[in-house]
Each structure stands twice: as structure tokens, then as C-alpha cells.
Amino acid sequence: MIDAHTLPGSTDIDTIRNIRRWTPGACVWCGNDDSVEMYRNEPRCATCRTHEEVIDEARKFLGMYGLRPLGGTLQSEDDEEYEHRLGARDARRALNEIRLTELPDPAAVRKALRPRAAGVVEHRDSGVSAGAGVAAPTPPPAAATSRPKAARPSTPAPSPVRTDAVDVAALEARVTGLLDQMGAIDAQIALVGDASGLAAKARLKNLENQKATILRTLAALEKARIAASR
Q1: Which run of H or E residues covers position 43?
Q2: N or C: which end of the chain has fewer CB within 10 A?
Q3: What is the predicted pLDDT for the residue at 38?
Q4: Which of 96, 100, 115 is nearest to 33 (CA)?
């Protein structure tokens, strides 16, 4: 038995614990093998998929309302936008913390996935062979094969379902929240008034910038509403 007190003082336990290597069947990002499923054409564990979905949901929300893309700042126009930005930042930070020191070679990942696909094909082939051994299909009569089939009218493909439709109810709720914020900003501007101090002028300029940002956001939301009503 190794006594912990006999280990040299220079040994970094955290470094030893964080040395992880990817193995076939594990997550390509963190090396975890818990609930691994295909995500964006590569095996990812449940934890990584959850963090990635949080980031994707934030991007979808910001894109739907024409807001500034994700970045290093959390500056937002309302609480809902702030929650999306904060959640995306925390998810990205969590992914960076569990990231493998060295990500696997994509070619090695594809090679590891081949036996699984080959097993599926082999299983299908064996099922067909077994069925053929039980009862061989009766070949169709020669007359039937020689008669050409009537041309079937081509049916148009169904129209794709739109997945980017704007939620009008959520849009209206967001507009209402922004209008409330603008009313509060107008009240603060009235309180500051025509003060001549440097601090008051800076505060007034900041309030005016906030109001201008809200007006631009409202204009973008109005465009989204008009597009949704068409």
C-alpha cells in the first residue's frame, strides 16, 4: 500500500486526475461514456449534449429577435435575454472545463464507428438469408414481367414544415416588457432634467443610449411581427 505522505511533494494530483484519453465509444469532447449518442454526426455524452443545446437555444432566441450575437458581454435589454446569455456563457465554460486535453482525430472516430454500421448491415443480410432458407419467393410469370407498367402520375412532394416561425404571443410579451422599460427610462430622464453636473450629464447620456437601443429592438420586433403575419 502506498502511503499518501510518502508521495513526493511535486506530484500534482489534479494533473493526474485530468489526464484523459478518448476511447472508441466515448464522447469525443470529454471522454465520458455515459449515455453516449450521436450528436452532429459524432458521439457525445448526455452532459455535453445538454450544454450544447443550451447554447443553441440562446443563439436561436437572439437570432429570432434580431439581437446582438453571443459574445463575452452579458449586456441585455431585458431579463429573458440576460438569462439566455448567462446560460450560454455558463454552458460554454462548463464545456471548456471538461474538454479533453487532446481531442481525437476525426478519422479515428469515423473508423471506430464503422464496425457498428457494419454490424447492422451484417444483421440485415443474415435476416434476409434466413428468410430465404424458409421460403423462397416465387418468381413472377414471364407475361407479367414483360408487360410495361402504366405510368403513375407524379405526386408533388409535401411542402416542408416551417420550423422558424415566430411565436407571436412571445413577441408581444417581449414588446410589452420593452415598453415598460422605456417608460421607466423616460421617468429617470425627467428626474435628471437639465442638471449641469458631469455625473448628471453622463447619467442622462447613458439613459438616452438605453432608450435608443430599446427603440431599435422594438423596430426589429415589428419587422418580425409583420413577417409572421404574412
Answers
A1: strand 43-44
A2: N
A3: 92
A4: 100
Per the CB < 8 A criterion, the answer to whether 180 and 172 are in contact is no
Q: Which residues lie across from 37 on neighbouring strands?
A: 44
Task: Specify the pLDDT at position 10.
Answer: 44
Which own/partner pairs from 21-27 qualify as long-range (CB within 8 Å, at least 24 positions apart)? 21/100, 21/102, 22/100, 22/103, 22/104, 24/112, 25/112
Contacts 24+ apart (CB under 8 A), 79-87: 79/177, 80/174, 80/177, 84/57, 84/58, 85/58, 87/54, 87/57, 87/58
Low-confidence residues of the chain: pLDDT under 70: 1-19, 115-166, 194-200, 202
pTM: 0.47
Instruction: Provide the 3-class DSSP secondary structure of residue 196.
Output: coil
**What are the phi and psi torsion angles at 38 (to 5°)?**
-75, 130
Q: Which residues pair with 44 in a beta bridge?
A: 37
DSSP string for 111-169: HHHHHHHHHHHHHHHHHHHHHHHH-PPPPPPHHHHHSPPPPPPPPPPPPPPPS----HH
Q: Which pLDDT tens digit goes with each residue over 31-67? A: 998 899 999 899 999 999 999 999 999 999 988 888 8
Say which DSSP state 70 is in.
P
